[in-house]
Specification:
By secondary structure, this protein is mainly alpha-helical. It has 4 helices and 2 strands. The longest helix is centred in the middle third of the chain and has 42 residues.
Length: about 100
């Protein structure tokens, strides 16, 4: 979709063709956005149902696991937390050399 639109933007056509290209692009973007919202809702409902099943299961009393999975819901938790590989030298400068960081 994106490559097709880029090609159409580069073409030098008359005004009617440019309007047609823009309308096609806007329609395809709208369809994509609709599908994205649909599958996002479906995913969130599935996660909600999984949590409800886990909580309502009478044989399992693992509330810690429930709250642990509850806290992992959302896109914010998909971010990766990485530690910086930097140390402060004796001179007070920041050094990011891997050997110096591992030896410090």
């Amino acid at each position: 979709m994106r490559d097709d639109m880029c090609m159409k933007e580069r073409c030098k056509h008359n005004s009617a063709e440019r309007q047609l290209f823009k309308r096609e692009y806007c329609d395809s973007r709208r369809d994509f956005d609709k599908l994205h919202r649909k599958y996002k809702r479906r995913y969130q409902l599935q996660k909600q149902q999984d949590l409800t099943d886990k909580l309502m299961n009478p044989g399992v009393k693992h509330t810690h696991d429930f709250w642990k999975t509850f806290g992992k819901i959302g896109t914010v938790n998909d971010r990766k937390v990485s530690l910086p590989l930097e140390v402060i030298d004796d001179n007070g400068t920041i050094n990011s050399d891997l050997n110096d960081v591992l030896n410090k």
